[in-house]
Design a protein that fits this description.
Number of domains: 3
Radius of gyration: 24 Å
Number of helices: 12
Shape: elongated
CATH class of the largest domain: Alpha Beta
Largest sheet: 5 strands, parallel
Helix content: 40-55%
CATH topology of the largest domain: Rossmann fold
Length: 309
């Protein structure tokens, strides 16, 4: 029993309260199979693996009793996973949330990145990138931001969550290429304004365009205006989306610089703005052809289908 853990250590490992472990043991029989020489409860790796699976099922929305029944059903015991640190038991301010979103929030606060990615991956595969972003990832990231504003804590959770979301978005597959050239062969260019480090929404748009089979190029966070201008000249995109999450003093200058090169390009390049930071741009917004207010709108417009009703 040298690798067995105390109830307190097991609770810290799983990111749950010790009282929760006692409750699962008492109510559902999901507890330690061994005792120390003094009669104290000790959790072996197999016990921890069983509890981790219970946490996963509950995180996905299963009632605890049903989750316990599945965990205790005859079959191979899951292998114990690598331990992760606990972030704290506090919840995220999500308001009314679906079971999946609640499970994601609990997994994020436990720093269970495997479960976060598993739930998001399932959502992408079953509902598509746009729905997974707007219904799950975006509310989760917004709730994490509010949590930091309220507590000035859990920065490590926010970073892990951002990485997990980014990892899922990068894995969204593209459909098979068409046999004949299409109207959308010219790519869409995605870039942030020079100071902008919040590029996850750009990654979400890139994933949605990839899912839709639309060619695109991503310049990412903190793109200098002159770099975006050079990219427009080099690849001749059919559209440019300039993302701004938080307003900065040089946003308007970047917009004007890109607008000038799109207007003078041999083939028309449409210029779109996206992101809440453009609210402070004032009259400079007239240099853009249109502002895209959501991922749903952006994908619909870039696919040439207008705005869905």
């Amino acid at each position: 029993m040298t690798d067995a853990l105390t109830p307190g250590a097991t609770a810290r490992l799983l990111g749950v309260a010790p009282t929760t472990l006692r409750s699962w043991d008492r109510r559902y029989g999901v507890g330690p199979r061994e005792r120390s020489p003094g009669g104290h409860r000790r959790y072996t790796p197999a016990d921890v693996a069983r509890l981790r699976e219970l946490c996963r099922l509950v995180g996905e929305g299963a009632p605890p009793a049903e989750a316990a029944r599945q965990v205790l059903a005859p079959g191979p015991t899951p292998l114990p996973a690598v331990p992760e640190p606990r972030a704290g038991g506090e919840g995220l301010p999500l308001g009314a949330a679906s079971l999946t979103l609640q499970g994601l929030a609990r997994a994020a606060m436990r720093m269970d990145s495997d479960l976060v990615e598993h739930l998001l991956q399932n959502a992408v595969e079953s509902q598509g990138t746009v729905a997974a972003w707007e219904d799950l990832a975006m509310p989760l990231l917004y709730g994490m931001g509010r949590k930091w504003e309220d507590t000035r804590r859990f920065v490590e959770v926010e970073h892990l969550l951002s990485w997990s979301v980014s990892s899922v978005l990068r894995r969204v597959p593209a459909p098979p290429p068409p046999r004949a050239p299409g109207v959308h062969d010219r790519p869409v260019l995605l870039a942030c304004v020079p100071h902008e480090m919040h590029s996850l929404p750009v990654e979400a748009l890139a994933a949605a365009l990839r899912e839709a089979g639309l060619a695109h190029r991503v310049l990412g966070a903190c793109t200098p205006a002159e770099a975006t201008v050079r990219a427009v000249r080099r690849i001749g995109p059919r559209a440019v989306v300039l993302w701004c999450h938080t307003s900065g003093e040089h946003d308007a200058e970047a917009l004007v610089s890109v607008a000038r090169v799109t207007v003078s390009a041999p083939e028309r390049t449409t210029l779109y703005t996206a992101g809440p930071g453009w609210r402070e741009a004032g009259s400079a917004l007239r240099f853009a052809d249109r502002h895209l207010g959501s991922l749903t709108e952006a994908v619909a417009v870039l696919r040439g289908r207008g705005v869905p009703a």
